[in-house]
Write a structure and sequence with these properties.
This protein is an alpha/beta fold and 296 residues long. Helices cover 47% and strands 14% of the residues. It is elongated. The chain contains 11 helices and 7 strands. The strands form 2 sheets. Strands 3-2-1-4-5 form a 5-stranded mixed beta sheet, with helices on both faces. Strands 6-7 form a two-stranded antiparallel sheet.
Length: 296
């Protein structure tokens, strides 16, 4: 193509025949290339437009989306585009999704408390919302000290139904997250809540709340992160996609977490559901339970 372009740029001075002979290319090939240039330039312009749309989707996801979710977002907007083309454009223009980083566990088991049985057994699926939840705690570093976040996530939709933040990680933190999930999640009686064996979850206060809400408690083994992988996976997503590593204040951390969970994750972030395809957690809950009344 470089040689064809050279012929195009200099044929007025030296003639097509002479240049093609010197460059050892056929005139028919050059004329075929010239005839196809308008179409090729039109395709290049269309690709530039698509690349702009891809970059905007990537930017709106705070740099989180890789090829699968960018492609799914394009398809949801009515853009019929081949996934391999999206992959090529993102590779050529160095548009990459975020790679999650490992997090340090906060789990401190209470060796004096009897653990609940493992009712999940690493099967992080659910046939319908409101039947199986997972929960965990993580820490957020701020200039004012550690700030802790507890969550309660529905395994059917991966929606964060309940969450709470505090400057401690005592039982009250996880109880508040559980109560929020119960209030907004339309949980069924005997709904399972699964966690690790941290002292917050084995406490008398938390177990009393589980009983009061007619739920069943489940726990993984000590020191085995894979037994609560779905809950830990959410924190990996949050810390990778939220961007901030150290907040200036606890208030700033709370504001960012609220925006991430309630605006970006639950309502905008696409996830591939085995039955529904690429949907947001909130859309999944609506489709599984079309008569659900959503909390504000």
């Amino acid at each position: 193509m470089i040689r064809f372009r050279f012929v195009e740029d200099h044929h007025d001075a030296w003639g097509v025949k002479r240049i093609c002979r010197v460059l050892e290319i056929s005139r028919s090939s050059f004329y075929a290339w010239r005839a196809g240039r308008p179409a090729a330039e039109a395709r290049a312009r269309e690709e530039d437009v698509l690349a702009g749309e891809i970059a905007e989707i990537h930017r709106d996801s705070m740099g989180a989306y890789g090829v699968p979710r960018v492609h799914a977002t394009l398809r949801r907007s009515g853009r019929a585009v081949n996934r391999k083309k999206v992959e090529r454009i993102m590779r050529e223009r160095r548009i990459r999704g975020i790679t999650r980083r490992r997090r340090r566990s906060l789990t401190k088991a209470d060796t004096t408390a009897a653990p609940a049985p493992d009712l999940i057994a690493r099967d992080f699926t659910a046939k319908r919302p409101g039947t199986r939840l997972v929960g965990d705690i993580t820490y957020l570093p701020t200039a004012q000290g550690w700030y802790y976040l507890a969550t309660a996530i529905d395994l059917a939709t991966r929606e964060v139904l309940g969450w709470s933040m505090a400057d401690h990680h005592r039982a009250d933190l996880v109880i508040d997250a559980l109560r929020m999930a119960h209030a907004r999640g339309d949980l069924e009686e005997d709904c399972i809540f699964h966690s690790d064996r941290g002292s917050e979850y084995t406490s008398r206060e938390f177990r009393s709340e589980i009983h009061k809400l007619t739920m069943r408690q489940s726990m993984g083994r000590v020191g085995t992160c894979y037994d609560n992988a779905a809950a830990e996976s959410f924190f990996a997503i949050l810390k990778a996609e939220i961007g901030t590593e150290v907040w200036l204040s606890k208030q700033a951390a709370r504001a960012d977490v609220f925006t991430f969970i309630e605006v970006n994750y639950n309502r905008r972030r696409l996830r591939k559901d085995p039955e529904l395809g690429y949907v947001t957690p909130l859309e999944a809950r609506l489709r599984y339970s079309p008569h659900t009344t959503l909390a504000a």
